Amino acid sequence: MPDSSVTAARLQAVNAWTRFTTDRNLQARTPDWRTSLAPDGRPVLSAEVAGPGAAHALRLFADLHYLPLPLSGDLRPFWDVDVPGRTVLVWRSGGVWVELWHPDTVTGLPAVRPARGGRSLLSRASARLPYTRRPIKETSR
Questions:
Q1: Among candidates 123, 70, 122, which has minimal Cα distance to 95?
Q2: Pick the residue with more confidence: 137 or 51?
Q3: Who contacts 30 (Cβ-Cβ below 8 Å, separation ≥6)?
């Protein structure tokens, strides 16, 4: 695979990610890009999405960003969770596999809520309640 296709795929991915995160004021970035070879012999561009809200930003990017892929053989982005410990968004552009990923965080733990005071939620009547403090007397006509 020529270096020009790897460079073109990287430029496309960097521009798409930068435009998307800038337009939505997201702080997650892709600082380091690495190149390797996939088992099928095609080049793989890989970057960790890092920074505040990385998982959220990557999920939004997958759901909302339209990535133009004009060549036959290109593949739309899809999720890959085969590698333990990370979630990867993968697509193929110009014969180059592109991965944006973030490390998985611990999930399934119960959220800890701060303790509330001993006061109940309905400690006093309000105008929104469907009843009043005193019963309404029916008048006969």
A1: 70
A2: 51
A3: 13, 14, 17, 47, 48, 49, 50, 100
Both tokens assigned to 66? 């339209």
| Residue 46, phi then psi, degrees to nearest 5 | -135, 135
22 phi/psi in degrees, rounded to 5: -70, -45
pLDDT digits (tens, 9 = 90+) for 6-30: 999 999 999 999 999 999 999 999 9
Query: Which H/E stretch holds residue 4?
Result: helix 3-23
φ, ψ for residue 17, nearest 5 deg: -65, -45
Percent of the chain surpassing pLDDT 90: 51
User: 41: phi > 0 → left, psi -120 to 50 → alpha, else beta; which?
Assistant: left
Query: 102: helix, coil or strand?
Result: strand
Measure the CA–CA gap between 135 and 19, rounded to whole angstroms: 62
Q: Is the pLDDT of residue 134 over 70?
A: no
- 3 has pLDDT over 90: no
Give the neighbor-by-neighbor strand order of the sheet with 75-80. 33-37, 43-48, 96-103, 86-93, 75-80
- CA-derived radius of gyration, the chain: 26
